[in-house]
Design brief:
The protein is α/β, with parallel strands linked by helices. 35% of the residues lie in helices and 22% in strands. It has three domains: 14-57 and 168-223, Elongation Factor Tu (Ef-tu), domain 3; 61-161, Up-down Bundle (NADPH-cytochrome p450 Reductase, Chain A, domain 3); 238-381, Nucleotide-binding domain of ferredoxin-NADP reductase (FNR) module (Rossmann fold, 3-Layer(aba) Sandwich). The protein has helices at residues 61-71, 89-95, 104-114, 119-124, 130-137, 142-148, 156-161, 203-211, 248-260, 275-278, 282-290, 311-317, 319-327, 341-355, 361-373; strands at residues 14-23, 32-39, 52-55, 78-80, 86-88, 169-172, 183-190, 192-195, 198-201, 217-223, 238-243, 266-272, 296-301, 331-336, 377-381. The strands form four sheets. Strands 6-3-10-1-2-7 form a six-stranded antiparallel sheet, with helices on one face. Strands 13-12-11-14-15 form a five-stranded parallel sheet, sandwiched between helices. It has a two-stranded antiparallel sheet with strand order 4-5. The longest helix is centred in the C-terminal third of the chain and has 15 residues, at 341-355. The protein is globular.
Amino acid sequence: MSTTTTPWSRKNPFPARLLVNCGLSGIYSANDTRHYELSLADSGLTYEAGDAVGVVESNCLNLVQDILNALHCTGDELVPDANGEPKRLRDALWKDCAITKASPQFLQALVEKAGDSAPFLRELLTPDQKEALEHYLEGLHIVDLLEEHPSARFSAEEFVKLLRKLTPRLYSVASSPKVHPELVHLTVATVRYESKGRLRKGVCSTYLAERVAVGSLVPIFFHVAKGFRLPEDGDTPMIMVGAGTGIAPFRAFMQERIATGAKGGHWLFFGGQLEKEDYLYREEFEKMQADGVLTRLNTAFSRDQEKKIYVQHRMLEHAAELWKWLEEGAHFFVCGDASKMAKDVHAALHSILQTEGGKTAEEASKYLETMEKAKRYKRDVY
């Protein structure tokens, strides 16, 4: 975690030099997942395995220009920044404002500006049209709304006041400070997709992948994750379940446990789409297994066969052994998608407690609650 003597913080991020940007996924993967290494030299910053890095990103200048065109602005117009000081509109849209998804406040203002030319959108903003509004806005961004409703004319200052603040993106640390004391590693999936005839880009993931050259500086800070820590006792066994970039903290954990000579067992479940394309850090984890450090390694590649197989299915396949590990005091970690993956893993774990532990549904729930209170069941989900 950050030291008390360092001047660096979320409000005053450290300019870390980007040393490495390399692809992890194969050329035929549906994902562009990348490995980054940032220098912490002379920063005074420290971190622990399980923490996250906050990256202070900036927006894509092409999108900024598209918005300026839709606003009929040059970009040189002056708008107040967070401190009330004048700033060029182009710079505010580039570094200060969230310029992708529209807020309810922006939609309401758009309707008021558009007047009678936006009856459909006005109807969608009524309380009973909440689901229809969500459906309409799916994949629709601020620039699309401006282009679809050219009669809604905003001044530069009016427009900026309707935008949310651009907030840093947190990424799980993928390295141990004991192994890399002056570096921090990140594992990031680059978000790109098409919607409404326009290429969309994840703000921070494409900032790292496309807009920061190796050797350039990236503003960062550390976010302490006290609830996602290694067991204090190195003899404690660990079960780790991650999919995609959810592997990041487990790479850090394994580096740390190797560095400290921890003797506890390690069981990793990892999931991706295709084994040949999406097996992140494969050589590292297979070497750990060959060296006997990684006790068990189970993978689930959902699209390598007709019926999709996910990490929760692998858990159920090894239910008896997994229950045995839990009864021996293993800590259970999950990292990945909160909306689907983490819920499915939780349901599989609950089922294993019933089938292998002989518990009722209520008893299984209480068992998991007890694990959470004892800090044996830990989740880093997003």
